[in-house]
Amino acid sequence: MSAIKMAVVAANGRAGSKIVAEAVNRGIEVTAIVRHQKESPAQHTLIKDLFELTTEDVQDFDVLVDAFGTFTLENLPEHMVSIKHLTDILSHVSTRLLIVGGAGSLYTDKDHRQQLKDSADFPKEALPLARIMSQTLEQLRLRDDVRWTYVSPAANFLADGPRTGHYLLRGEEYSTNSKGESSISYADYAIGLVDEALSGEHIHQRISLIGQ
Known about the structure:
The protein has a single domain (5-210), classed as Rossmann fold. The protein is 26% helix and 21% strand. The protein has five helices and ten strands. It has helices spanning 14-25, 55-58, 78-89, 127-140, 186-199; strands at residues 5-9, 29-34, 44-47, 63-66, 96-100, 147-152, 156-158, 168-170, 183-185, 205-210. The strands form two sheets. An eight-stranded mixed beta sheet has the order 3-2-1-4-5-6-10-8, sandwiched between helices. The chain has a two-stranded parallel sheet with strand order 7-9. The protein is globular, with a radius of gyration of 16 Å.
């Protein structure tokens, strides 16, 4: 077993379940934080709503992964509310917060004035989610009292894509691989996120992951 202790919020979701599986396979002690009991490879389960979590619930973990997501228009503000709650309960706590972020806020220029969501060909149906997640990231950047890392996926985030075992680590700017593609499977994204959980190399930073 790795010495690290990790908890995953929304561990039953598509991203959360991949992260839990990857972490457990890597020898990490994982607690699934879920609203409803469901079969999971996690060694421990905490049944509790995200918005009811307290500092006492999370302060003993080395890493808390926020894999919460909602996609219905009326619930999109919950992204901002959830991050506010998690950062509040982790204020001045040593536990690191890793957030499953979005790609729409990746910058498309060197001056960091234009984001992917501002592109003419950005899918209109994805704009509301991209906007709220971009606003959430900007609020997160103000929190120097929390050891956060925001992990953006590639533009094409493939829920059912294969686990190739490879990914490319990038920073704030939108990028593509050698094939000119910006895509990554949830499974390969989970590898990169768990690597970051183990290394802790990008505190107070946004990183991005793309498939090779």
